[in-house]
Design goal:
alpha/beta; Lysozyme-like; 6-stranded mixed beta sheet; two-stranded antiparallel sheet
């Protein structure tokens, strides 16, 4: 008897730090992680270019060093900025990836968390299309609900924080409009995974 055909193996979720379900646009703004870096932190940000305007491709252009600095007056204030994040989630939930998770993206800047400085060294950065302090779209939380566990499958994630928590006084994103409880509900991660300031808020809402 002939053997029944075997089903093809499913494609892996990750390949050299690139996530299967993200639209890929490699950014030149990255570098190697320090030897022995333990990638155990996810940092959440918000971004929109110009601030408060959504739907364009300016964020992708910024991360690719192709932004037309003359296209809007605000861009003059960030002219020459070279930054990146690992992931970017659009308002409608579309997911982009710019840097391999194995590499060091330039998203955190001067920062400190868990008793460590230079959070770029050992974190994954996720930008949410939005304005700090404002609300985010349900579709963005849906994407986070699948992306965060997928990251934790590939990297030893123990903490998730906002840019505001790793660079207090310098950064305020994602801000008060971000629903940390939604993240906790969708991932099942415990309170200790969250920043201390967020833990207090979450615990109060559970009472």
């Amino acid at each position: 008897m002939s053997k029944a055909p075997t089903a093809p193996s499913p494609a892996p979720l990750w390949h050299q730090g690139w996530y299967r379900f993200a639209r890929q646009q490699p950014s030149p703004n990255h570098g190697p992680r320090p030897a022995g870096a333990r990638i155990d932190l996810v940092v959440l940000h918000s971004i929109s270019l110009p601030p408060g305007q959504y739907g364009g491709d300016e964020v992708q252009a910024l991360f690719g060093n192709t932004l037309d600095w003359s296209a809007h007056p605000y861009f003059e204030s960030i002219r020459g900025l070279q930054v990146s994040a690992h992931f970017y989630i659009r308002r409608h939930g579309e997911l982009w990836q710019f840097v391999s998770g194995n590499d060091r993206a330039w998203h955190a800047g001067t920062s400190q968390y868990r008793g460590r400085s230079n959070c770029n060294d050992d974190s994954i950065g996720i930008e949410l299309e939005g304005l700090e302090g404002s609300l985010f779209a349900p579709e963005q939380y849906d994407t986070l609900a699948s992306l965060l566990p997928a990251i934790a499958q590939n990297y030893p994630i123990r903490h998730v924080a906002g840019h505001e928590h790793i660079a207090p006084g310098r950064k305020n994103d994602p801000g008060a409009g971000f629903d940390w409880q939604a993240v906790q509900r969708s991932t099942g991660w415990n309170d200790q995974t969250l920043p201390e300031a967020v833990q207090v808020s979450v615990q109060k809402n559970k009472m």
